[in-house]
Amino acid sequence: MASTIQRSIVTTESRTVRYLLTSLALLFIGVFLVIPLASVFIEAFRQGWRLYLAALVEPDALQAIKLTLIVAAISLPANLIFGIAAAWSIARFDFRGKSFLTTLIDLPFSVSPVVAGLIYVLMFGAQGWWGPWLIENDYKIIFAVPGIVLATIFVTFPFVARELIPLMEAQGSDEEQAAIVLGASSWQMFWRVTLPNIKWGLLYGVILANARAMGEFGAVSVVSGHIRGMTNTVPLHVEILYNEYNFIGAFACASILALLALLTLAAKSYVEWRGEQQAAADRRHAVEE
């Protein structure tokens, strides 16, 4: 019904209005998205493949790529566990402070990444709350990998949870309760009922969180200390190269992030398509029954 109404609203617009709005949208996409993204690759390859590859295999660049992958590999499981736990709690249970918890999950969206980095400096920096104890026990968080991981987890926290909460609320708990009544354990219920139902939403959230983790700049910049060859992720390395007028190296490393964005877009589109296919199959199965 809703789709019918939506189609009728679209078709009532005149052809001129439709062409005008479509052209305007395409113009904005071309000017603000496609052309800037394409210029990154054009500049990266302007001096040829050899200089491009030489910029990527330079030791500091390799270390930046390695650190970026490490940070993403650590932050994603943390996001996965938190996202499932938070979505399960909010979608399945009623408790005092539920609305407040839901609001807190969105906090990283509203807080500037720079502020997020400063929060961890205040907590773990040399003059911070636990700084003297950390120094005394030879633990290093700020200007080291642990600080970068913490800042990345902070800014990527909402992505998985925000995908799962509305999905699990819409699905309800009837199938899970039926599994329990039929004798399934809690783990069997999660593995065989809950997880298959949320897998595409979960994968969608993980893809977005991974893209943000690899491309985060503000929070990581504050806690990293910009130690070359040690605490620079790819975005920070790009900034350093650009400030040193090493444009080939800067755009070569930037092309890695741009390629990641394109792969993320492709993976996101595939996950959406698979989710729609499964939803359509479930609807057909329900009608047949």
Structural description of this entry:
The protein has 289 residues and is mainly α. Helix content is 82%, strand content 0%. Helix 11 (174-181) runs antiparallel to helix 12 (186-215).
State the main characteristics:
single chain, 289 residues, mainly alpha, 82% helix, globular, disordered N terminus
Q: How are the secondary structure elements laid out?
A:
Elements: H1 2-12, H2 15-44, H3 49-56, H4 59-92, H5 98-105, H6 107-110, H7 113-124, H8 131-136, H9 145-156, H10 158-171, H11 174-181, H12 186-215, H13 218-224, H14 234-243, H15 247-288
Helix pairs in contact: 2-15, 3-15, 4-9, 4-10, 4-12, 7-9, 7-13, 9-12, 9-13, 10-12, 11-12, 12-15, 14-15
* Number of distinct helices: 15
The value of Rg in angstroms is 23 Å
Helix amount, in percent? over 70%
Spatial separation of the terminal alpha carbons: 21 Å
Please give the number of β-strands: 0
Q: What is the arithmetic mean of pLDDT?
A: 86
| Largest β-sheet summary | none
Low-confidence runs of at least 5 consecutive residues: 1-7
Q: SSE string, helix = H, strand = E?
A: HHHHHHHHHHHHHHH
| Proportion of residues in β-strands | under 5%
Overall, the morphology is: globular
Structural class: mainly alpha
The gist of it:
With 289 residues, this protein is mainly α. 82% of the residues lie in helices and 0% in strands.
